[in-house]
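To close the chapter, one final illustration. This time we ask the reader to focus less on the individual chains and more on the assembly as a whole: which components sit near each other, and how the overall shape emerges from the parts.
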Amino acid sequence: MPALSTITAATLAKDVRLEWRSKDAINSMLFFALLVVVVFSFAFDPDAEQSRQIAGGLVWVAFLFAAVVALNQTWARELRNQVLDAYRVSPAPANSLFLAKAFGNFIFVSVLEGLMTPLFIVFYKLRALGPAWELLPVAALGTWALVVNGTFFAAMSLRTRSREIMLPLLLFPISIPALLAMVNATTAILTGEEAVKFWIVLLGTYDVVFTIGCLLLFELVLEAE
Amino acid sequence: MKKAFPFLALLTAALLSFALYQAMVVAPTEKTMGDVQRIFYYHVPSAWTAFLFFLINLIASIVYLIRRNLEWDAVAVASAEVGVVFCTVVLVTGPLWARPVWGIWWTWDIRLTSTLVLWLIYVSYLILRRFSTGGQTPVLAAALAIFGALDVPLVYFSIWFFRTQHPQPVIGGGGAIDPRMLRVLLINWLAFLCFGALVFWARYRLEVLQREAEEAEALEALLEPKGASQ
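The assembled structure is written out below.
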């Protein structure tokens, strides 16, 4: 039986190649996030000081909504031609598939964030008063927090009616502590007023707890019949 | 077991009326808040009962995943539904009390927010059960219940960073409570627990019977074409 990492790498490479050629997820996410940025900019019309206060919330709400677009496509692709069923009967461990999907989503959402951040800076006249490099760990931990549970719940909502609606209904309540941490950490860095450390530790804990939870329970969800 | 149900129902009715009398007449009026404080006898017992049912839901979910016994899944459904009802009572009575006492309906304080998030998680649990199709529902729901339980401490710590406006817990928090008030509170809790158990029992029976009926229907549908061809 091939090792866990080989299968993960192969599935991940396949997903990235598919996305590179079709650009389905990234295009829809980008356009969606762009719309959110523009609409919020009109709705609030903030000056530089207000921007600092509200940008943390706006950025993460935009990324969260956009991420749902990508997460919903994660498993839908595998349903065509019964790929998922084939995977189930193969001896490959379920977790290697889960990790590949989660890493793939992490890459897609990170690319989205990288492309959207300059736009946010321009539209909201942002300039961090705290140490801006700290945004990097916050973004990495926050993105992982969203995609690890998102990938898991997307697999869950595959088995439900109207699954596209189901994913946010499951994901958002569970993500509240992570969202709170991301938003507050970003605001703290932008305004330079509060300490970020607590929020980063909380995000790290959230990531560890739910990564373990997902790995322990994913096989049950995949095999549920 | 079935015969015990009317007795429990009678006991609950008697306890609830006794508890109402205790809360409205016997319990002393609070000095600063006045009669508004009496909502406390409904708010706190409902909260304890709701948390207890959520705990039962978690335990039933874990046991279901280990044993794969559908009766445990019925326990999980019933306890989640009853828990959500009691949690809704908490979330409604809280603001009713807060408006005259604090001057605001709602504040993003640690206990209020945690309870709200818990309510949201369990509502999403019920929605998942409603939308899920086929035989995988119990497994998916049990997995979500475990995720919700993992989330609770994180929710608590994340909101802990904000200032807390809620009155400190009266029981075990070192706060002084009139022993008469405590007695009334405990009587009310007992009454609410009995009521919760009664509703839970009815809901559990309903769930089991519904499944039996569905199974019988499915079996009939399987047998029918054979009969038609003969």
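Chain A has a mean pLDDT of 87. Chain A has one domain: 4-223. With these observations in hand, you are ready for the problems at the end of the chapter.
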